[in-house]
Design goal:
heterodimer, A: about 325 residues, Rossmann fold, nine-stranded mixed beta sheet, two-stranded antiparallel ribbon, 8 helices, B: about 400 residues, alpha+beta, Protein Transport Mog1p, Chain A, seven-stranded antiparallel beta sheet, 12 helices
């Protein structure tokens, strides 16, 4: 350090520049060190990045001989569902001995069965019976209703079927959920009703066919909405995107659309028998896009062009909206 | 900082007789500390900048247990679960889900019901439990309360339809029918901001096959329930089945609610003026504004009428005479712009014009504060005959 004539500790220009350089280098070095040491994990207390699960595919092998879509008309649930399944090759094509089967009904509301806002108890009874006949070791029933689960299952008549047939009814509990990861259009990371799928080897979607105030129709694809947890109503802003995402999220063994009694108006809750129309039809298949396409056009009797989520799912290669192009068969029970 | 401080020490401080204060030595520790502080500040700044750029809220899930200490207990949607208290064998065997328990199994002791509106930003409405005096019923659950903000928790995708009519609150409760084991009746009361909006929602969901009710100004009975508007409340009484015992109880409850709820038809003068003769009951609708594409037509009631083999859409608006006259003139000008208008002779104090616009007929009258007319009619003569008969009081 040089000394000026007046002050021993003053610095000259050279030394000042050297010190400035050292300080700058230290700042840059600390920045680089921070960048090097920085880890992507968010550190804000209360938040953490979670690695979500991805559902396996439960879909059966594609058959070039057996239809992938069956349409059965009849007067009774069991007889008509049996007829539809027979077209597809029987329940044995989907369920093998020892399988643990999850049946996902739509029990979103605490409505009586006659109002067709929920899966009909006779439809559940018939499908569960067919599963056991095919050798299923266990049949699990699960849904995460928008209303209180016990009230919904009780009032929809499904609790009685569960009790009669000794099925496993899994209510959503606090620890029943796990994060799900999906590369969906809007569904990326979300909490999912996971417990029923921990031991499941097969999954069947059993949905009523009904009008929906926001997305025009609730059928087999929309049915999987009931597996989401959290404040899922926020997806209502992107309802068609989220419903099409369900065709990516879930690859079920089989879907069955109950069109025996169709909620034609004031859905998804209904409330009047006049909203319900008897259509005496069961549609079953492995391609839920095709099943829903049939349901919208022939059970809800509407123009398929307006059902945005079907087109989205079709364009994303998640199914075939042109159900007539699929291997299908229509029968009378 | 150290460098700057050293430079500052070279400056003479003080003037006159004061002694100059000059720091002759800057300790090494102080210099190192200053450099470290600068480095830390720079590091924090860079870290925040990088982090801010890369943070995507979609990638993070809230870990609720970490926030538990900061949250208030939320009362969940567990009221219907109280059906388990019913004596039915099925329900008594069913375990109550932990989610329900965690959500707060206690009844809202202050109000006697389940409050679902705790998080609602709007001022809370009075939470009176739904008590019904009837010997044939037994409550299955406490009363549930919802606001416009959380109505979706009860009716999900149906909620936006109610919100569009400014629903304020919904309360509901289920009752077991003592005379019919396993049967129950659900009572829903949707309270709107005014009777007109209540009517609007009621009309939107109207059952075309419903039988008119006398217990309330607007209502009908369906095969499994009773639906009506009383004041600003849209009431839905829904039975679980069509057993005579169940339906008898549903009717008794409907009568009870119609009697207990305050009557209020304010804003519904137009509805009252719609003639009953020839009306297709399921066609009554309320158009809050911009009816017929006319900004002057507000709070309009309309319905379809069977008349002389034709089906005629008819509307009525009730306002002040001045407003009605201006709206009539405005409508006439509009029709003249896009079609041919003919002024007809007055009938019973009513001014009338007839117009053919885009191939359809309109016959519109104004009498005092009442404006109305037939629109979109295929047959202009029948539309005119209908209006003239109405003005003469021959259609009631």
């Amino acid at each position: 350090m040089s000394v000026s004539p007046n002050h021993e500790s003053s610095v000259n220009r050279r030394e000042f520049l050297v010190r400035l350089g050292i300080t700058g280098a230290l700042i840059a070095g600390s920045g680089l060190a921070a960048r090097k040491l920085w880890q992507p994990k968010h550190f804000v207390p209360g938040f953490e990045k979670e690695k979500g699960l991805q559902l396996r595919s439960y879909a059966p092998d594609i058959s070039k001989v057996l239809p992938s879509l069956a349409i059965a008309h009849g007067m009774e649930h069991e007889k008509t569902i049996r007829a539809a399944l027979a077209v597809l090759g029987g329940m044995g094509r989907f369920i093998q001995r020892g399988d643990v089967v999850v049946i996902k009904p739509n029990v979103a509301f605490d409505r009586p069965p006659a109002l067709a806002a929920t899966t009909h108890p006779e439809a559940l009874r018939a499908v569960a019976k067919l599963c056991y006949e095919a050798g299923a070791a266990k049949v699990i029933i699960a849904d995460n209703p928008i209303n209180s689960p016990t009230g919904c299952f009780l009032k929809s008549g499904l609790t009685a079927v569960v009790s009669d047939m000794h099925l496993d009814l899994l209510y959503p509990e606090t620890n029943s959920f796990a994060p799900l990861s999906l590369d969906g259009e809007v569904l990326k990371e979300w909490t999912f009703f996971n417990t029923p799928f921990k031991k499941a080897t097969k999954v069947i979607g059993l949905a009523p066919c009904k009008d929906h105030n926001l997305c025009h129709a609730s059928m087999t694809m929309k049915n999987w909405y009931g597996l989401l947890g959290g404040r899922r109503n926020q997806f209502h802003q992107h309802i068609h995107s989220i419903v099409s995402d369900f065709a990516l999220m879930m690859k079920p063994s089989l879907v069955i659309l109950d069109g025996m009694n169709v909620l034609m108006s004031n859905g998804p809750t209904g409330g009047r028998l006049s909203d319900v129309k008897r259509m005496n039809t069961i549609v079953a298949g492995t391609d839920m896009v095709a099943v829903d396409a049939y349901g919208y056009a022939h059970l809800l009797e509407r123009n398929l062009d307006e059902l945005t989520y079907i087109h989205k799912a079709h364009e994303r290669g998640l199914g075939n909206k042109n159900w007539k192009e699929t291997l299908h068969k229509e029968v009378q029970a | 900082m150290g460098v700057l401080f050293i430079m500052a020490s070279e400056k003479k401080i003080g003037t006159g007789n004061r002694r100059e204060f000059v720091r002759l030595k800057i300790p090494l520790a102080e210099r190192i500390a200053s450099v470290v502080i600068i480095a830390l500040l720079a590091g924090i700044g860079i870290f925040i900048a990088i982090k801010g750029k890369r943070f995507d809220p979609n990638l993070y899930n809230v870990r609720t247990e970490a926030l538990r200490s900061t949250s208030a207990a939320v009362v969940g949607k567990d009221a219907t679960a109280r059906s388990l208290t019913d004596s039915q064998p099925v329900s008594s065997e069913t375990p109550k889900p932990a989610a329900d328990k965690a959500a707060g199994g206690e009844e809202n002791s202050a109000e006697g019901g389940m409050d679902h509106s705790a998080a609602a930003p709007k001022p809370a409405l009075k939470h009176e439990p739904l008590e019904i005096s009837h010997a044939g019923i037994k409550p299955m659950s406490p009363t549930e309360f919802y606001t416009a903000d959380n109505l979706f928790e009860k009716i999900d995708g149906r909620a936006p339809a109610y919100q569009s009519f400014n629903v304020q609150q919904m309360r509901c409760r289920s009752f077991n029918v003592i005379a019919a084991t396993g049967s129950y009746v659900d009572v829903y009361e949707f309270r709107f901001d005014n009777p007109v909006d209540a009517f609007g929602m009621f009309a939107l969901e109207r059952d075309p096959k419903g039988k008119p009710l006398s217990m309330a100004p607007d209502g009908y009975s369906g095969e499994m329930g009773y639906f009506y508007r009383q004041g600003a409340v849209y009431v839905q009484i829904i039975a679980s089945d069509v057993k005579p015992e169940t339906m008898a109880v549903a009717k008794a409850i409907a009568e009870n609610r119609a009697k207990e709820l305050p009557a209020d038809d304010s804003g519904l003068a137009g509805r009252r003026k719609l003639p009953a003769e020839g009306m297709l009951a399921d066609s009554v609708a309320f158009i809050p504004d911009n009816a017929q594409g006319q900004s002057a037509l507000k709070e309009v009631f309309q319905a379809k009428y069977k008349f002389d083999g034709a089906e005629l859409p008819f509307f009525i608006m009730v306002a002040t005479p001045d407003v009605a006259a201006k709206a009539w003139k405005s409508f006439q000008n509009f029709c003249g712009k896009y079609g041919a208008v003919e002024i007809l002779p007055d009938v019973s104090g009513g001014k009338i014009f007839r117009a053919q616009v885009f191939g359809k007929w309109k016959v519109v009258y104004q009498r005092d504060g009442e404006l109305g007319g037939v629109f979109d009619a295929e047959d202009g003569a029948k539309a005119q005959a209908f209006i003239e008969k109405y003005l003469r009081g021959e259609i009631k």
